[in-house]
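Write out the 3D structure for:
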Amino acid sequence: MKSVTIKILALLLAALMVLPMLAACGDTTEENPDTTAGQVTEGDTERQPAVAKKDYQDAEFVAIYCADTFNEGYFFIDEEDRKPGNDMDDRVYERALNVEEYLGVDIIAENGGTFQEYTTPLKNAISAGDDSYQMVMTHVYMEVANLITNNYLRDFQDFESMQLEEDYWNYGLMSDLSINDKMFCGYNDFCLANCYMIGFNKDMVAEYSGTIGNLYDQVRNKQWTLEKMIEYSSLVSQDNGDGKWDENDTYGFSCFAWVPLVSFQHAANIPIVKEGTDGEFYISPMVDNSEKIIALDEMLYDFMKAEYTYTYSPFDGKQALPLKSGRVMFEIVNNYGLVSTKEEDVKVGVLPYPLWDSKQEKYQTLSWNGVLGIPTTVQDEDMVGDTIEMLAWYSEPVNTAFYETLLGSKVADAPEDVEMLNLVWAGQVSDMGLVFSSSSNQMDALLYALAHHVSVEGKPAYATYYRQNQKAAERLLNKMFEED
């Protein structure tokens, strides 16, 4: 099911292909002044929200968020924090204002702090039976399982005004994370994409064009594989003359050797958790893809240890080596990180994570979004349901601005990168093994098994991790469903 974001990207791509000199796509309300922001026009028919205009007489809707995952300024912004001429700030601010005016509510965003802090005030309020919070915006996984098993969250299906099967909701992802058919984890167009992709230095790649060729065509023809990316990365390895390999040298590949490594597993179409025919969930790599996961683990280990690869991790104290340094050809980048490349001299292109092989059906990347949750203590169900629904409904202009912020003025010169971003975002997948990894230490260990092997001295290969952690991880994950 396509989200509004993907539809926007497809339209932008088509426009850029026809008019390559056109500047970045402007605000849809300027192109059609009769269209209210957030409403979708299909042909001559303007789609109207399912929620009727209301007046809740300034009822407070308080959303507490984990600052580690829901980046500040991208979801709510105060008037005094808006930067002049920043379209993203304007659209985020206008979304909240539109919802407040449409429903007569007062939306308040509370920074709950880090992944270690954000649930404390929420839990305290719920334990006291206090209706202090109407929505929680979680870390990608920390505390999500605990919030569910300790009965802190409501089922989104309880709220009649939420149109969960509309295209501005991601019903598929919510279904994948459902527990006994209850949807405690909400996801819609309010949740901006948070994932990793492969960035590359266009000028450096051009220097090796005789060997590398056209990367965009390789993606289109399903020839962009992990083996190819490693081969191209091996072309670049240059010491600056001081005799030691560090962040001052030039490399074919650079990455944070922790979180982004997990996404290689899903790029190879190896999920962590699957549901068996008996309804029980199991850790699947060594059951369904044993040869592939072992080969992937070995390939990544050798790749990350090669002299043409620069890695840094939470354990080594090394500095990052970004694309903007001009001394790395490929880097794993978070989509938020693309914003920092706009004003740099280095021309940056983007690609999806590579396929395992050309036989693979599609490109995939793991979604590192947090999810939305509704506290069990909410009292005004109509107000809460209406507000969350309308935040999603009014998100199309925000998504457009977010997309333009990533590439900025480079959009007009890079229609291929528009296409690649479309492909990356359309290929996002989720996994219980990620979202519910806090259900046990064993599940967390399996989530980061590839990264542990690469980055932590003396840690074993994937097969050993599986044998050590599989049974306990499965038992404690399935216990979540028994307790519901």
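The longest strand covers residues 59-65.
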